[in-house]
Amino acid sequence: MRSTLYPIKGMASGVEECTESESVSTVMCRLVDSQHVDAVLDSQTNMLSMYEKSNEMLVNCNALAVHRFTHTSVAVQRYVQQLTDLRKDLDSVYHRIKFMKLKLSQQYSHAFKGVSLSITIDVSCGNVCNRLDEEEETADDIKNVKIRDE
Fold it and tell me: Which tens digits make up the pLDDT trace of 107-137?
């Protein structure tokens, strides 16, 4: 491809010849004000520095979140293990109480006759309460109960 030479006016030495790309480049440079280009470059530089600062802040925030997450996850695992152990302990206590209740009802069947004793836990006050399902104890019943030593 053959490049055509075009004259450029306004040069100090008069008219000079250049290729098409040089002539387009020169014309474009004359159309755009250098102050506007400098303002755009300054704006881009400012935005770049702001993005870099934002990126640094996000990296620090992410590192802090990872650090806190690792500590929190270790603590949660420890709490889960404690709750699991507590549940096992409570199940063991419940089964022991159930076994003791059964054993006592067999040993002292006359005291449990006609009465079904169940143990309930009052969640509001945290007290363990004995509840009689079929009949309530009266003052006379309590007076008539004799304690036997075996």
Answer: 888 877 766 555 555 455 554 454 444 444 4
**112 plus 82 within the same structural domain:** yes
> The whole model's pTM is what?
0.43
> Residue 6's beta-bridge partner residues?
18
How many domains is the chain built from? Answer: 2
Round to whole Å and give the CA distance between 115 and 100: 16
Contact assessment for residue 135 and residue 114, using Cβ atoms and an 8 Å cutoff: yes
pLDDT score for 106: 87
Q: Are 132 and 112 in contact (CB under 8 A)?
A: no
CA distance 13 to 16: 8
Which residues lie closer than 8 Å to 114 by C-beta, 6 or more apart? 134, 135
- 149 lies in some domain: no
Domain extent for 12: 1-31
